[in-house]
Amino acid sequence: MTATAPRFPAEWERQSAILIAWPHADTDWADRLGDVEETYIALVAAITRFQPVLVCVANDDVEAYARARLASARVDMERVRFVEVEYDDTWLRDSGPITLRDGSGFRLLDFRFTGWGGKFAASRDDRLVEELVERDTFHADRHDSIDFALEGGAIETDGAGTLLTTWQCLHERHPDASREELGRRLADWLHQDRVLWLDHGYLEGDDTDAHIDTLARFAAPDAIVYQGCGDPADSHHAELQAMAAELAALRTRDGQPYRLFELPWPQPVIDGGRRLAASYANFLIVNNAVLMPAYGDPADDAAAAVLAQAFPGREIVQVPCRPLIWQNGSLHCITMQLPEGLVAA
């Protein structure tokens, strides 16, 4: 009998929970903690309508506080579980586990997290997956520690062997490696047989060097949702138009063009003279729904309509995320989906 190869599941497959980390005064959110807590409360409330959420907390006091805030917001606490673990910040898309299905079990891939190429301190975040494993958080057969810098926000899979990523990010992390070498290594570790590269697309204020999850996302094996920019006067226009052309030139495994869904462009958000990285592509897929970042912008409802077309049959839930972009990330960046069966009871 031939063993089944490990598989990197798509985000739209069934999940056991969403993993997040609660912000507190020792994270980079300290200056705007009240605002960002409101986003986290809204996020947990939205997630628990559809499935459980696993909340990392730094200590007993943070847990007690988070528990009280969530309970007072009438969150379904039966679907909230806390785990105490150290972390530098709350961007779990990039410090959390990348999970492969391996036969009837799971394999956790624990790549190095370097604070997006050494921009920020990340030693505790880099140990996060190991710490969670030591606390018996997961039903996983293997925990593979891989000495290679890679963030979860840098990669998108269709669940059927195709990976989508950006050259800028991977090249920034590994400047001495060729595209062929990087593609081969990603394909081997993630068990993909195709790697599709984008050479265009970026957001001002983005610390990640053009993570794919701010730009273009699979909605199905033959469909991609992407952030557009229809304003010729905007500094992003040329790059995002070039990215749209790249996406139009990509082909599915069957040689067909992808079905493309263009998200509208939100108005610029400026903070102290700094442009913040607002993107509707940073949505999160959960069981039976898509949670989308809302910025209090006139385009919020139009973005929800596009996502409803891309994900028929799923409820589209807007989560207020304007406080998140102060730290240059959004909804998908602070979350990591955990496939069905992975979380220990």
TrEMBL record:
Family annotation (Pfam families): PAD_porph
A single GO molecular function term of this UniProt record: agmatine deiminase activity
Domain of life: Bacteria
The keyword Ligase appears for this protein: no
Gene3D superfamilies according to UniProt: L-arginine/glycine Amidinotransferase, Chain A (3.75.10.10)
SUPFAM superfamilies, sorted: Pentein
Keyword Transmembrane listed: no
A single BP term in Gene Ontology: putrescine biosynthetic process
InterPro entries documented for this protein: Peptidyl-Arg-deiminase_porph (IPR007466)
Keywords attached to this entry: Hydrolase
Protein name: Agmatine deiminase
